[in-house]
């Protein structure tokens, strides 16, 4: 059996966490790109969403995570009972998550569904892989918002497609690997081809943002529709 060795050291993140909403039970935040959701085992990876927020909200816990490079909406439970109630909504897939992404190239179809099982392979860590045999079911919907060209300093035109992603499952790296499987990796994605095409190596970050989160308030039962505009 392969042993997973994580050598990643996160560079310092100077961007603040924006608190978009809070009550006595939960908080909604805008996570900056370049910040871990949870502190790593390596002491150099102490800074994280949880590490920062527990100073403000003692006893708070993460209900879900966003990748290091992904920005956007996260819901934070302010006590254990709320965490359990929210985790139940996530496990029952009653939470709707919508992401905005910039994909390399121009997608042919205006919308579609990516149905491709995702597997862990310790030998490839931290990469995940598409595998219909050992993978867990993974399904993502996408809809094109716009196709455009971004002009680079040397006058080169980089074709990009802005999409709205709706994951129906919540696998690790799901949108990143599904975009790559589609043949149009997310711009700035270091693991799945988003820095491979000419001009993409200059991308300042992973162009993936959690822009909407829909769930039910665990105490009042009221529907919560959180939105956070994409920074790119």
From TrEMBL:
Single GO molecular function: RNA binding
Cited SUPFAM superfamilies: Pseudouridine synthase
Superkingdom, natural source: Bacteria
InterPro entries linked: PsdUridine_synth_cat_dom_sf (IPR020103), PsdUridine_synth_RluA-like_CS (IPR006224), PsdUridine_synth_RsuA/RluA (IPR006145), RluA_PseudoU_synthase (IPR050188)
Biological process terms in GO annotation: enzyme-directed rRNA pseudouridine synthesis
Keyword Isomerase: yes
EC number in record: 5.4.99.28
Keywords: Isomerase
Keyword Isomerase: yes
Ranges for domain Pseudouridine synthase RsuA/RluA-like: 25-180
Pfam families reported for this sequence: PseudoU_synth_2 (PF00849)
Name of protein: Ribosomal large subunit pseudouridine synthase A
Organism: Cedecea lapagei
Lineage of origin: Bacteria, Pseudomonadati, Pseudomonadota, Gammaproteobacteria, Enterobacterales
Gene name in the database record: rluA_1
